[in-house]
Amino acid sequence: MELLISLAYGVPDSQIVGLPGRIASERYDVSAKAESGVSLPYEELKPRLPLLLEQRFKLAVHREMKDTQGYALVVAKSGPELNQASPGAKAGGMILARGLRNPTASMDTLAGMLARPLHRPVVNKTVIEGSYNIVHNDSQEGTADSSLPSIFTALEEQLGLKLESLMVPVEMLVIDHVESVPTETD
Fold first, then answer.
1. Cα–Cα distance between 32 and 54 in angstroms, integer?
2. How far apart are CA 33 and CA 2, in angstroms?
3. How far apart are CA 63 and CA 20, in angstroms?
4. Cα–Cα dist 149/157, whole Å
5. How does strand 122-124 pair with strand 94-96?
6. What is the Cα–Cα distance from 84 to 93, expressed in whole angstroms?
7. What would the pLDDT profile of 54-77 be if each residue is shown by its tens digit?
8. Domain ranges of the chain
9. At what angle do helices 2-9 and 49-57 cross, to 10 degrees?
10. SS3 state at 172
């Protein structure tokens, strides 16, 4: 459910509050058809997801601002070590157990990707414009015997960027109501 809400409202799971733990980790097989009966790409499906969750799970939410502990993505003292995105590279990033990959990432996109494994908001403060081929390898969180560096060390060594801890104003998605048993619809 947490992933469905995150996808539907475009917020990382760290910015969702009020979702009961038993429902957050539940797995659902959601099946729905578009009005025209055709398959939709994610970008066309995304605006329809909130309505689907409202109808099927009686989901009610509101948004509010909250200062929370997070990180600022900044340029390291050594300077950025970034490779420009290749012309014609396909957009799309992956968050892997041992790092991040995105052939066309802006610094805002990278900050958003970093928020997921860090479980905290990340704000881009690099002032770097453009798109870059991001290849970043780090140790999996909680893996003590990994030969890879931590996400913090890897960012600095591999990309010339670093994370600084700070309080960040974040728009939170507050769950007012959700039912664990979905309503069947035609």
1. 13
2. 22
3. 17
4. 9
5. unpaired
6. 15
7. 998 999 999 999 998 999 999 999
8. 2-65+170-177, 67-169
9. 140
10. strand
Pair of tokens at residue 182: 């979905």
For residue 141, the 8-state DSSP code is T
Residue 7: phi and psi, rounded to 5, are -65, -45
> What type of residue is 61?
V
Residue type, 24: A
Give the span between the Cα atoms of 146 and 63, in whole angstroms: 39
User: Which parts of the chain fold into alpha helices (H)?
Assistant: 2-9, 21-24, 42-45, 49-57, 107-118, 151-154
Going by the DSSP 8-state scheme, the letter that residue 67 receives in this structure is E
Specify the amino acid at residue 68.
Answer: T
* Three-class DSSP category at 3: helix
Predicted TM-score (pTM) above 0.85: no
Q: Which amino acid is at 10?
A: G
Whether the Cβ atoms of residue 73 and residue 110 lie closer than 8 Å to each other: yes
Helix H segments across 18-171? 21-24, 42-45, 49-57, 107-118, 151-154
Q: Between the CA of residue 87 and those of 34, 84, 106, what are the distances in Å?
A: 34, 9, 14
Per-residue pLDDT tens over the stretch 13-27: 878 999 988 887 778
Query: Residue 19 is encoded by which pair of tokens?
Result: 């979702």
